[in-house]
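Hi F.,

I've been meaning to write this up properly since the lab meeting, where we talked about keeping a consistent format for the predictions we share between groups. The idea is simple: the sequence comes first, exactly as it goes in, then the structure tokens exactly as they come out, then a line or two of notes. No screenshots and no reformatting. I'm using this chain as the first example so we have something concrete to point to.
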Amino acid sequence: MRTLMSTRGQAVVVLSAGLALAGAFMAIVLNRGSAQLGDAVSEKSRQNARETAEKAVALGGFLVANNLVLCREDGWSGLSRKCRWGGDLVSPAVDKSVYYLEQQEGSDQPLTFNAKIDFEVDPLKAAGGVKLSDSKSPVKISFDLINDSKIKNLVGEVSASAKPVDQDHYFVAITAQVPYLDVKGNQNNFDKTSLLRRPMGTPFLGLPESPQCPAVCSTAVSEGPHPECRGPQDVADGNVGSVFITVTNYGPGPIYRLNYKKTVAYDKQYFPDLKPVVSTVNAMATQEVLMPGQSMSVSDVFPCVKPKTITKTVVENETCSRRRHTCPANLNPVSTSISSHQEEVGDVRYDFDLTKLSESLEPARLARRIDKREVEGDIDQAVTEKTTVKIHYIPTH
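Output, unedited:
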């Protein structure tokens, strides 16, 4: 009996011990399962943050590509940042609220928006397959203009054939920041940055047919040799001719800087001692941006010089110009005054200096394809869009 009781007691003790071990094992399994579940929840939260950040960056790219965010190398008057909202400059105007954006004010940091983002990609639900709705996702989207010297390893080099017309060294950095909770309930941020080039503008320069240098004469007096200014005329010292320039941006992007190289050259036949005069014309004056489809006018001047005698050869009532043809040596030249009729005496040429394209145009890219033959030849002559007007002297009678 004692042996039986002892045996039963031992069996109960063993059973109790076994149950205790089993309970401990179950607790360990449950704790591990809870940790794995927490990790899974945290990873899911991070994955959602990643997807939201990708959508936010895509939205930022859309805003830049459609000129709703404008970034300028020299920044903007009254702002400490390089990028600004451009919806007020497009037609029709677009408010930030259309994209559920709220700009952070009073900050010297890059242009930053608090955004509410929820994308549905379904062609049946929204035009273009993307629908924006007003969700509560706390997302930040920021925009900054950075020089490619900081990101050479990411963006690479411009090809040799494109370098003469592509000297734009700036990228818009679009950064999205999305918060998420880790397994301990702590808040972390998922950051994603995308680099995008600004859309380029296409300037078109419109000029009048011919600028003029009007001749003048002294007041006629009764004892004067040329009454009523019927004789030789002259150009007053300091007299200038005017050129009214019209610039149009054909897009698709804005233009932030537009400086033309102006070359005033007088005909060597008439003015053998005059050298071409090269200067720079700021075609945008004080305007900070020229949006696609916009035009503006700028007045430019060039110096008028005193005319000299032109020598021409007349053959059987036809003029043989020494500038264009080889005239017979036995013909006697006939002298005439430059002010006796309208005469082309030089030209004013506007073009881009490709050695300094980044100083002439922003973004510094020209819409011009270059083939290998042009690259191996005179690249400046091959790709520069020249606009030239002839200078005329116009007499007063």
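Notes:
The first helix runs from residue 2 to 65.
Residues 40-196 form one domain.

If this format works for you, I'll send the rest the same way.

G.
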